[in-house]
Amino acid sequence: MSIVHKATLTPSKKEIFGAWLATQSWCEGDLTGTIGSYRFDDPAGRVGIECVLLEVGDSVVHLPVSYREAPLDGAEDFLMATTEHSALGTRYVYDACADPVAVRALLSAALTGATQEPMDVYDQGRLVERRETVVTAAGTGSWSRHAVPHFDGVTIRSHGAESRVEVGSFVVVVKRVVDGSDADGTESIQVTWPDGDAALVGVRHR
């Protein structure tokens, strides 16, 4: 279960994503809308992990982000913004490809066949809504959750329309621009939204 707090963010997610995408050479056009998102949980409950599908120009962009209560050491170049969350305080918003907790969540989902977490909305500690799913995501693998290895950090080998991240003995491939092709991998996260579907995260051994 992914807990989402009923709150305001200043700046908003749309403002953060739009400003960050405008600085990326692989992204063409302006952010015009949000299709939806899927989430996987941090087992420790400290890091929020969200993969957002956005309408940008004539394209669909897949943007994995992480939300932290404190800066992530060594990831200064991947900080999108800080935002003030009316329920949680200051949050640090990162490109999730540089966040080991987020990358492990994606790796684990692809290898174990996990599905995205339901989004439960809380207001002052009280459940007020289970948000309707617009985007669904499911891994293709059949590993035991306990068989997924732990690792200390990530190494980004390419950072563009398709990002490649080395984690231990694996490579995690994240498609950022949805172009009709699947992310390279022996296992993947299959994502479905109202107008399409694709493997947007792939995992393979190095």
User: What integer is the average pLDDT?
Assistant: 91
Shape: globular
- How many angstroms separate the termini? 32 Å
* Poorly predicted runs: none
The largest β sheet comes out as: 7 strands, antiparallel
Task: Set down the secondary structure blueprint.
Blueprint: E1 2-5, E2 9-10, H1 13-21, E3 31-39, E4 48-56, E5 59-68, E6 79-85, E7 89-95, H2 100-112, E8 119-123, E9 126-131, E10 136-139, E11 155-158, E12 162-167, E13 170-175, E14 177-178, E15 187-193, E16 196-205
Parallel strand pairs: 1-8
Antiparallel strand pairs: 2-6, 3-4, 4-5, 5-7, 5-14, 6-7, 8-9, 10-15, 11-12, 12-13, 13-16, 15-16
How would you characterize the overall build of this protein?
Strands 2, 3, 4, 5, 6, 7 and 14 form a seven-stranded antiparallel sheet that branches. The two termini are 32 Å apart. By secondary structure, the protein is mainly beta. The longest helix has 13 residues.
